[in-house]
Amino acid sequence: MDDLSRITIDMDALAEVVERLPKEAIDALPFGAIRLDESGQVTFYSAAEAKLSGYGSRPALGKAFFVEMAPCMDTPAFRGRIERAKAVGKYDLEFGWVGDFSDRSRELRVRIQPASDGGCWIFIQRE
Amino acid sequence: MHHMLTINTKCDISTRSHLALLALVILLPVLIFVIFLLHHQIQLQRTRIEQDLLKESRSITAMIERDLRGVTSMLETLALMPALQQGDFATFHQQASRITARYGVGIVLRDKSGHQLLNTRVPWGTRLPSTTGTDAVRAVLETRMPYVTDVAIGAVSQRELVGVVVPVLRADDVTHLLTAGLPLERFRDILTQSGIGEGRTATVVDRKGRRLAVIPGGNPETAATWDWIGRAAAQEGIAESTQDPGDLRLVSGYSRSGMSGWATIVSLPGDEIDSMLVRDVRSDILAGAAFLLLSGLLASVLGLRIARAARMLTAAGRALQSGTTVPPVSTSWREANEIGLALTTAFSRLSEKSAALRAVEELYATLAGSSPVGIFRTDPEGRCICVNERWCEIAGARPEQALGNGWTEFLHPDDYERVFAEWRRSALENRPFRLEYRFRTPSGSTTWVLGEALIERNDGGVITGYVGTVTDITDNKVLERQLRNAEQQLIRAMSAGRMFAFEWDVASDEVHRSDACGGILGLEESPTTDTGRNFFSHVHPDDRKHFVDTVTRLTPDRPNYAVSYRYQRPDGVAAWLEESAAAVFDGDGRMTGLTGVTADVTARKQVEAALRDSEENLRFALDAAEIGIWRLEAATGRMTWDAMQYRLFGIDPDPALQETDDPSLNAFMMLVHPGDRTGLRERIETAARTGEAFQLDFRTAEPDFRTAEPSGAGPRWLTLRCGVQRDASGQPEHIIGVNWDITGRKAAEAILRDSNAVLEARVVDRTRALTDAARELSAEIQRREQAQAALLQSQKLEALGLLVSGVSHDFNNVLAVIQSSYNLLRRESGGMDKTRILDMAEQAVAKATGLIHHMMAFARREATHPRTVDLADVLRETEDMICHSAGSRVRCRFDIQDDLWPSVVDPSRLSAVLLNLAANARDAMPEGGELDVSARNYLLGERENRETGGWIVISVKDTGGGMTPEVIARASEPFFTTKPPGKGTGLGLASAHDFVRQAGGNIHIRSAVGVGTTIELHLPRAVVAAPGEERPLASELADLGGDATILLVDDDENLLTLTAQLLRDFGYAVIEARSAETAIALAHITERLDLVITDILMPGASGPTLGARLRLDRPALPVLYISGGGQGQAALAEGERMLRKPFGKAELAEAVLERLGRLPKPAAPAAVSAAAPDKLRDRLRNPRLRDAYDRWCALRSAGGGLPDWDIFPSDDSTMKDNSFMVELSGGQADEYRYVRFGDALAERLGRSLIGQPAGDDGDELGSTGASYRRCQETALPSYEYARFSLADETPLLFERLLLPLSDDGVRVTQLLGVVFFTELPRLDLQPRS
Fold first, then answer.
1. Are A123 and A39 a contacting pair, CB within 8 Å?
2. Shortest Cα distance from B920 to chain A (angstroms)?
3. Which pick of B114, B364, B449, B1140 has the fewest CB atoms within 10 Å?
């Protein structure tokens, strides 16, 4: 757990660090982690994210993240930023965000980095 | 059927028309052929006539030629006459004159020149007219052949003549020409002789077309002339002509004579030919027309007959269509008669079927009317066509209401969808519809029906409709529901009671059980059948006999039984079952079966067992602890005692030995020591009255009368504790009490009282030892700090030595000036002005003073605590000294960024380090060079320093010889030096290293031989603003500070020192600890502790753990947590306060006061917003955003409401350029319009948004609409940021702060947005994938 406590959402190569972790460790992180493949399908959805977002244990894998799970994030602004960055190939984005599944006034930090399989990682920390 | 009789009017042609068309089709080609034949006939006839004309002209030509040839022969004969040959013209004249006389032909002899020698028309010797040669003469002379001339006037006869000229040959030589003159009458005679046909005209013309002869003579206009015939080139042919318009049209046959070149023309007028032809064909045409008329009449008669037959058939068909009797069809047309017969037969059959159908319909109507089920019929779209009366009764509708879609109005609304879904499904799957559903009648009652419907299809498989029935099953439904309810109640009751029903048949050994048995018998499912044998095999062996005995004892008189037994469940658990059942007997008194219920009483049995165990345990415990129990009836004062109670009082529990049979309160009191008796009795009586429990120690009476002697002498101490049992009305009913012996404890307490004083003395000793240890600890810390200070001092002195050597030269110069100045003054010699001397001296003194001031400032022995320092100030102060140290050969340059961030360092150490570096640089440049010292801010360059957000880089660069990589590698080792012995200590770079490391930064050395060396000190940006920038603390907060002891825990030494200093400045006493363990130790030896401020993450125990430990001793101790970065408020328990680094002095003061509970309670609306904006301020990165936020907060707290729009000073152009304002447009709650837009933003966006609405589409200013709404709804500031690092672009931080503004202080009317874009240092992004 000492190792995990060093992993914060601010780390530089966060996506690389997270990808080296076993699934249980990612689930235990204090922030949520979501991996999308190139087509925007959810290929990983950490237990922390399920708990923190209030999305619960509904099956998440294989669903189009923006269309089925987070329709409120499917705004041209949010999605467009990811798409533009993906087109470039190397990127590191961070947003302060407002709004969530269960609590619209909760504040979020969202970090987006490329995943090794061509998709991207979305890390979400709620305060 | 109807549509099949519809007549298609587009091809409506009657039979008569058809027949007429047929006749036309047959006659038309025949007529055309006949006309063609007639035409051909006429042509033939015309050709024949024309050929006749031609033939006649030929014969006439031949006749003329014959005549001319005769004349020629005669002339040739004359030419051979001897008279002529001999030149005896007179004789010749005489002989020739006979010919003239006989035939009327004049003979003329001419010489070769054409002069007439003799002419038979006049007597011989008559002078003849002189004529010269003619064409004829020339032609004959040339050809020596006879020649026939055209018409000419005879020179002698003066008449129109035609000449035939022959040569007179003598010895093959033409000597004379002999001419016969023929009168034209000769040719007319020939024509007359030719005998041409009636009406024809024959004409002879010469070569020149002059008419020679015409017959008949009296009709010259019908005679053709050569004028037009001569134009024809042919020898012979047919020609048609009209001489002039309006003239007679002539058809002529002509032929030309080869001998004379004359032409004969036989003509006939064209009209005459035509009339001849018409005459020829007229009779044929008349005959043909007559035949045609006859056949037309016949056809018409036939057509009428066929049309009549068709009319009769049509009438028969119409009759069939209208259903009336079909009249018999009798015509002369056989087929029509047959069709008529078929129609008549069809009508009779149809009549029979209609009758049958009517009968069926009547039957259907009767059935439908009297049917017990509702019947309906719909079209393919489900529109009702008909319903019967019963349907109407069931649905509560009138028949006309059901028609069309009206029937759906009567469906129960809850079943509407279900019915149609099932309907669609059944139609789709091609199966009958069957569903139970409800009608709701207009009166409101509900009818349950079973609806069934079939699909009706036509032969092509197309759905033509649906027919179905509805059966009223309301009563069934009610019964069903009641039955189900009853069943469910039974099941629920059985399930609640954990029981199941069973029935056992003796003969078949079959057992039937109800559903709930599975759970009770430990089966996964609930098999409702079993065998008695199988069931019995699971009964516990110990209980089987009892079970069998119970059942075999049953008789018809006493058939009921109840038996408990254990049941071995398959999962190994033994369940206690209780069976309540009755035996069933047959007429002979033989048992045939058992029926009843079996209940699971395992829980009850377990409780019973537990109770038994518990009672035994209690009894054992009471006995072991020697506790006696008694019970007193409040009303009667009667008591019951247990055996131990007796023993406690030294009485044998054996009833036979007791002095009183009935223990009572009075008897009890007798056993109590007289001194305690009254008190005890009062307490017990009070308890009996009020129900108050109590505990009391008392002594027993003297044991002199006891039979059973307890150990020890004297009265014994007992403790009595009792409680009260109340009845249903709440009145005390029983008092239940226990007694136990405390004689031993009482004795011990006495001893303890004696030794207490000794113990306290020992505790004091121990505490003193701990205090001493702490003092030792502090002293040790003190000593270590002193040692460190001494080390620093020695480094400073070393640097000072360098400095002194650098400045001594200058200093000597200064002193020399002073000295000489004073010398000059003293001598007062020379022409020098005294004032000037004094000026020089004063300048020198001022310079010297400055130098000394700098040296003193540097060497000042002051505490080596790092503090927040404005680096620019330190560097500027040090500039002179460094440049002095560098020496005169080195050009010294300082470049310091204006708004340099503060850092937490020891300024004097920084000066010393820089001096050392400068000295190194000087030594590296013995021949002179350049020394550049620069300082600049560096944002987010190193990953280790995320939490503070920036670095200050101080670089010292020289142009000296540089270092090799080996030297660089060892450069930071202490005492490593490249300088000659005595020149350097080798501590310069090492101390720089040490200094930077202690400040939390690092050092970078870049050097290349021959180029120079650059040494960069990376110092972290101070987490707390430098004192100069700190906003003044609100005076009311400052007044609240002080008079509190704070334990400050942080593993970061710099931060610990700094925060401690701040707290001491506020007037607090501060205890510092670098770890949780130290903090716990220090807390133990500290008497007063008002607050703990601790970092959350530390080596060893964490902040929250420390807080929890300290609160074991001081439960109300407030704790203020400091967070370094990643840890959120979420990690803390409810109500805890967290301060996020970096924090300002004011924030710290406020947080401490809040934790100490000294802040006045904020007003209600502010309380809601207190937590969120604070968190928000922590997150703002750009200082200008914080300024804006602070200004908003200040205005808000000052005015008591939302600020109005004018919150920035008008001259603050940075804020103006980087902000925008949106206004709520109109009455819409969520429409915003930009009313102000800063220039810097417009430049970045490429356009200004003034006047435009703010939508949800994201732009450079972030996702707008939602944030605006939220800010407006909450009336709180909102903050969003985005950091973009894309490929090779410079990373960009976008921050937006939204501040709600109001015109009236309450309602949000405008939103002020402050936006900053900050370029961040580039991170080394690698493309992945």
1. no
2. 37
3. B364
